[in-house]
């Protein structure tokens, strides 16, 4: 499917998934789906260290469960192999698309995460018009993934 949707479609899928989560579970958990968000909130003084740790444990558990679901679904394809196809994750290094170094991958992740958390903190601060916060967060994540797809051409093999 990835080759049919392209990097723009994949980028929008990530962004739209986040906007759905922001509006769907935001009132319950503030839609912290990633430990970086929780630690960003903690660094900004909007969450205690204890709560950030509990959220992070829940986020890792949720990600592990989601990976298991993806594995079960992908395993239903006759030619699927976890060792060959993975679970749609990105990678780096020799032999991988783009052959970027670990340093380049780490720098991209650091800058992209900083930008993403900055937007989240900005649109959710007191006095911000939070009605459209989910949309701003969605577009930021879609933009980050679009940039990643253009300069680091990865189409998850699970979707192929």
TrEMBL record:
Family, as annotated: Belongs to the MIP/aquaporin (TC 1.A.8) family.
Membrane topology listed for this record: Multi-pass membrane protein
Protein name: Aquaporin
InterPro entries registered for this protein in UniProt: Aquaporin-like, Aquaporin_transptr, MIP, MIP_CS
Coiled coil, from the record: none
Transmembrane domains' residue ranges: 12-31, 52-74, 100-123, 135-155
Main location: membrane
Sorted UniProt keywords: Cell membrane, Membrane, Transmembrane, Transmembrane helix, Transport
Compartment(s) where it occurs, according to its Swiss-Prot or TrEMBL record: Cell membrane
Pfam families: MIP (PF00230)
Membrane among keywords: yes
PANTHER family noted in UniProt: AQUAPORIN TRANSPORTER, MIP17260P
């Amino acid at each position: 499917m990835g080759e049919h949707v392209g990097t723009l479609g994949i980028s929008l899928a990530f962004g739209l998934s986040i906007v759905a989560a922001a509006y769907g579970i935001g009132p319950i958990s503030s839609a912290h789906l990633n430990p970086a968000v929780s630690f960003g909130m903690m660094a900004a003084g909007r969450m205690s260290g204890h709560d950030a740790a509990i959220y992070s444990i829940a986020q890792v558990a949720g990600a592990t469960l989601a990976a298991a679901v993806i594995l079960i679904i992908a395993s239903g394809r006759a030619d699927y192999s976890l060792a060959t196809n993975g679970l749609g994750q990105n990678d780096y290094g020799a032999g991988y698309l783009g052959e970027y170094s670990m340093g380049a991958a780490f720098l991209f992740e650091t800058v992209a995460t900083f930008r993403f958390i900055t937007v989240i903190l900005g649109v959710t601060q007191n006095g911000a018009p939070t009605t459209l916060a989910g949309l701003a967060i969605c577009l930021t994540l879609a933009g980050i993934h679009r940039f990643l797809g253009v300069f680091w051409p990865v189409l998850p093999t699970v979707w192929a």
